[in-house]
Design brief:
Blueprint lengths: L5 E7 L6 H10 L12 E10 L7 E10 L6 H8 L8 E7 L3 H5 L1 H9 L27 E6 L6 H18 L2 E4 L13 H18 L12
Parallel strand pairs: 1-3, 1-4, 4-5, 5-6
Antiparallel strand pairs: 2-3
Length: about 220
């Protein structure tokens, strides 16, 4: 069997938001029984069928790079993480729906990865003070995923989801909200599964295809 082409997708967000549990669920369709803190970066692989069910269907490897979310000293930690940001093809931004700060910090995480040569300045956005110009020229596909949906009381869900909905709009990305301890949130045919598949298709197209659909030359 010929080796499959692959794309690199970063999984970014604060410590404790559930990135490792999410990656395990995405790659193995199983709940991670005993998640631990990620030191540095952990890489797992998901098999994805691009344009599934069409004549253009082709199987790819999706490398999911789970980057440790420790902030620490901004300069030293960022310079250490910078090596993981090379040659990225897509970014999944993960936040904890019960933690407002983790949502605000997604702006810092995205800018750190997209502008890895720029010195970090900490949290770049607070209280909804958002500068759309920061992402105006971004060509890297983004996906926003909110975790721990199960920990929000039913009476509060609408309020919380309304508060976080602006993230997807700001990043020009689709949004998925789920509970990483319940695989049904990503069940085949569900709206979340469709959004995820669409995101991976977009990442592959940006990596391997021109806008007119013609395949481009590439190097592994």
């Amino acid at each position: 069997m010929a080796a499959l082409d692959r794309v690199k997708v970063l999984v970014l967000g604060d410590s404790g938001v559930g990135k490792s549990s999410l990656v395990h669920l995405l790659c193995h369709n199983q709940v991670l029984g005993n998640p631990s803190w990620t030191v540095g970066c952990s890489v797992d692989v998901r098999i994805h069928d691009y344009k599934e069910g069409t004549p253009e269907e082709k199987t790819y490897y999706i490398e999911l790079w789970d980057v440790g979310g420790s902030v620490g000293s901004a300069t030293s930690v960022k310079s250490t993480r910078a090596v993981f940001y090379n040659l990225l093809n897509g970014i999944i931004l993960v936040h904890d729906l019960t933690n407002k700060k983790s949502s605000q910090n997604l702006y810092r995480w995205s800018l750190e990865a997209l502008n890895r040569d720029v010195a970090p300045t900490g949290v770049l956005v607070t209280n909804g003070d958002y500068d759309g110009e920061q992402f105006a020229d971004n060509q890297i596909p983004l996906l926003v995923i909110g975790t721990k949906l199960d920990q929000i009381p039913e009476t509060k869900r609408n309020e919380v989801l309304t508060r976080t909905a602006f993230l997807a709009e700001d990043f020009n990305a689709e949004e998925i909200n789920l509970d990483c301890t319940n695989p049904r949130y990503l069940a085949a045919g569900s709206s979340n599964a469709v959004k995820l598949s669409r995101f991976f298709d977009k990442v592959i197209e940006k990596r391997y295809f021109l806008r007119d659909g013609n395949q481009v030359c590439h190097f592994s």
